[in-house]
Amino acid sequence: MNIVAATAAWLTDPVQWSGPGAIPQRLVEHIGLSAISLLVAVAIALPAGLVIGHTRRGTAVAANLANIGRAIPTLAVIGIVLPLTAAIDPQLGFKVYPTLVAMVILAIPPILVNAEAGVVGVDRDLVESARAMGMREGQVLGSVEVPVALPAILAGLRSAATQIVATMTLGAIFGSGGLGRYLVEGIAQNDDGKIFGGVVLVASLALATEGVFAAIQRAATSPGLRRPKVIRRATVGVGT
Questions:
Q1: For residue 115, with 0-12 CB atoms within 10 Å meaning exposed, 13-18 middle and 19 or more buried, which class applies?
Q2: DSSP structure string for 129-148
Q3: What are phi and psi of 68, to 5 degrees?
Q4: H or E segment and range at residue 213
Q5: Structural domains of the chain, count
Q6: pLDDT in tens, 11-31
Q7: What percent of the chain is helix, strand and coil (3-state, nearest 5)?
Q8: DSSP assignment, residue 18?
Q9: Contact (Cβ atoms closer than 8 angstroms) between residue 170 and residue 102
Q10: Which residues contact 19 (CB under 8 A, 6 or more apart)?
């Protein structure tokens, strides 16, 4: 049986779709771990990127940290973090936390850099106009800079989400859940169908993630939504 036939047979086997360790369970695990990682990365990197872009302070530090984050192999991060987290929690600290930390570190650079670059790229005349209208710095950031920078911000989130979904499989080496379990188990069992079935599932989920975030990006960056409030106010004033 060739690889294609073995993969198709494994994917269409009803046994793989019900019970413990079945595809739906592994899929939920993979999505859940990926979502947690992305949310933590967003909570850390997005505010930092927006503030750095708005104030123009710390851009060099942010760029250097982002480059370091990109340069460190994800598997190495898991290996470095594992002894620390395992000492805190022998169960989750070995199987789950190291992978989550590694995924967060993986996702921070694109979110941070895109948010910072998007805000920096906002037309300074537009920003100064908002300040001249009496807006405070927080209002300028939230009402003017973020709407204009939204395409770049969402591009960073899209990149980070896709990278997390595709790389989450590494956690299975250390016992984490998700679709990567099929690759690890397939290699151990010398089961080509399971190995390439897992590859197909991971690739499909990564493509689906890319598609979902691309759709969100298109919907959220329509001209009406991106139009800063300062322009809306100015337009209303002219009309009246």
A1: buried
A2: HHHHTT--HHHHIIIIIHHH
A3: -65, -45
A4: helix 192-220
A5: 1
A6: 999 999 988 889 999 999 999
A7: 85, 0, 15
A8: S
A9: yes
A10: none
Domain with 141, as residue range(s), is 3-12+20-239
The conformation of residue 240, written as its DSSP 8-state character, comes to -
* CATH of residue 31: 1.10.3720.10
Q: Model-level pTM?
A: 0.87
Q: What are phi and psi of 43, to 5 degrees?
A: -60, -30
Instruction: Render pLDDT for 141-184 as a digit per residue (tens, 0 to 9).
Output: 888 888 888 999 999 999 999 999 999 999 999 888 899 999 99
Residue with tokens 């790389």: 167
The Cα 174–Cα 37 span in angstroms is 17
pLDDT bracket for residue 226 (50, 70, 90): low
Instruction: Quote the crossing angle between the two packed helices 229-239 and 124-132, to the nearest 10°.
Output: 60
Q: What are phi and psi of 137, to 5 degrees?
A: -60, -40
Render 140-180 in DSSP notation, one character per residue: HIIIIIHHHHHHHHHHHHHHHHHHHHHHGGGGGGGT--STH
Residue with tokens 């493509």: 207
Angle, nearest 10°, between helix axes 97-120 and 146-167?
150
Q: Contact, 119 vs 145, CB < 8 A?
A: yes
